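Why do we bother with holo predictions? Because pocket geometry can differ from the apo form. Keep that in mind while you read this record for adenosine-5'-diphosphate.
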Amino acid sequence: MPDKIHLLPETLINQIAAGEVVQRPASVVKELLENALDAGAKNIMLEVRDGGKTYIRVSDDGCGMSPTDARMSFERHATSKIRSADDLYAIHTMGFRGEALASIAAVAQVEMKTRRPHDELGTHIIIHGGKLITQQPTACPPGTTIEVKQLYYNTPARRKFLKSNTTELTHILREFKRIAIPHPEVRFDLIVDDKELFVLPATRLKQRIVALFDKKLDEQLIPVREEVDDIAIHGWITLPEAARKKRPESMFFVNNRFVRSPYLHHAVRQAYGELLSEELHPMYFLLLHIPPARVDVNVHPTKQEVKFDDEHLIYRYVASAVRHALGQYSLSPLIDFHPPPDISQLHTQKPPAPSSATPTTAPSTFQGNPSASRRDDWEQVYEIMRAEVPTNDQPPNPTPSPVLVKTEQFHNRYIFASVKDGVLIVHQQHAFARIYYEELKRQLDGGPMSSQQLVFPHPIDLPPDKILLLEKRIPQLRRLGFAIEPQGSSSYVLQGIPSLLSEWNADPTSWITLLLEEFPDAKSQHGGDALLDQWARSLAVQMASYKRIPLNADERQWLIDRLFECEMPSYDPRGRKCFVTWSLDSLDKMF
Ligand code: ADP
Ligand code: MG
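The structure, written out:
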């Protein structure tokens, strides 16, 4: 028998490799745009036709290539970006495998013109299916233009897998955005089937996002910015009220490279926590910068997955940065403080183990208590508020709760407080709801809530279907502090209620009816904790509904104090604003 094993020809090897790198026209677009960025381009133009199937062109004004490099760039494993294994741990470029051009040229008809700025002539190369057709000097502008025509013309089997032009274009647009967003300082132009679809002049991140997505975002984005040691995160997230039912396009970048990470997505979602009900999704664009040695981008051929040296730390870092941004955004126009990042507790708290699938339950251990640094933030606010108190000649008031802020109540609903450069307007009921909710949560986190014995046990009067529901919920109701005891075969009495509720004059069983009615079919697979959390919100809002009442100066002060001690003072447990601020500037504009 003759020997059977033989080496594959180079072109076939490249075609096989192309399967990995060039999955569809959008992959070509991604590779070419990344090369243009790596070449230091400031202006990049992308043109596609027929969903990129027949024509893709990327022109840049980057560094260009010498005639030899131009030819070399199409060789497999030919790269100018790394030299040794050590370089793998210090990658600052988008590419480094030296596979893209070789793979693309193996499955298409490619034409390149390139010139270094200081060279008089450039180089013109044509390669079809990996075979060099011509290479000659040419006059061309500095930079590089690559045209990729008839993708998969020589591999009809793959060509069949291409989807409709519209679908392929959708993929191209997605790649285009993923590259244009983290590089707002670069101008991008996109021409689709001879029409100019995007003209994106060099700008800043927020404007780039708005230009690519939706003008409305301009008013809905709040900034995220944290920096600790050698890790930094910045970007924009949407206000809770801008969240959508349909999961919007959100993006995470690590060192300016788009990454797919259900784990980090979960960190962001978790940071919004109670501000959003489960079916709503925020939009976010977050850029994480971390020393290349601490992140491995080499785990996936298209480099969309990354591995961090300490996944848990990054999770907490991201969640904390987002929470911090949400917690203080409404103040920032008026009260301009830059508190230290809220990660002092990062090393002591444990998030869930990372997993490739999106976890379904939020890590409850991460919700924590108001942090020390948040406290500091509000102390700074007080400093500013204090400055607003009219001075008089009286000696400092020695009473334990001095009035720090000049406040006024309107219509039993709003409290106005004079602050530096403007006014703070607190929505009384929402503020109460926020305070009650955090108090309930705090108590719940510490185990079953304390219960206050009722003088006379109340029979729980419910229709039979509700009794069945009640029976299922008894363990959770008891954790909340409702002492429910059976009486006879199918009736129950209430012997105690949560201590927190004892000062309310409402019929004690009405709380239970409320809870059972509001979430009749809460899914048990979300765990009792999710239900308890919903109940806590519901109770807090209900308790606060009794609070449209006159408040004296001390009570107003109490409310403001307690609100700003909350972990999330900006919103009530239903995501409604607790306060707004009006700057003098904006007031002046009204007149
Ligand atoms: P990689 O980007 O991984 O190095 P590529 O196959 O994408 O591999 O490119 C090979 C080489 O060709 C690059 O390392 C770079 O030196 C050169 N090159 C590719 N595109 C450009 C460009 N637009 N401008 C300048 N040089 C380029
Ligand atoms: Mg490349």
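The pocket of magnesium ion (ligand 2) is lined by residues 31, 34-35, 95, 100 (CB under 6 Å).
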